[in-house]
Amino acid sequence: GDPDQAVAVLQHGIAVIDPCNEALYDHLIRLHRDHDRPEAALRTFAALVTQLATIEATPSPDITALIGLRL
Asked: Which CA distances in Å does 65 have to 5, 15, 29, 60, 69?
């Protein structure tokens, strides 16, 4: 499929349906990573960190590993 359309759908899901849904961010990060968009993957991860902080949570080790960070 069209990766830009998939990005738009996932971003809509995050913005409208559930801004703290880690699974949506996971899919979006993987999509960016798989289409050679590392900066977009990092921005998406940063947005997840910000959103999860609003509910006093942190990203799971699995999603953190997607972008090669150790927290």
From this structure: 25, 23, 11, 9, 6
Judge whether residue 71 has pLDDT over 50: no
Residue with tokens 């899901």: 13
Q: Quickly state the pLDDT bin for 68 (edges 50, 70, 90).
A: confident
The pLDDT, as a whole number, for residue 69 is 61
- Report CA torsion sign: 67, 52, 48, 9: positive
Distance CA 48, CA 55 (A): 11
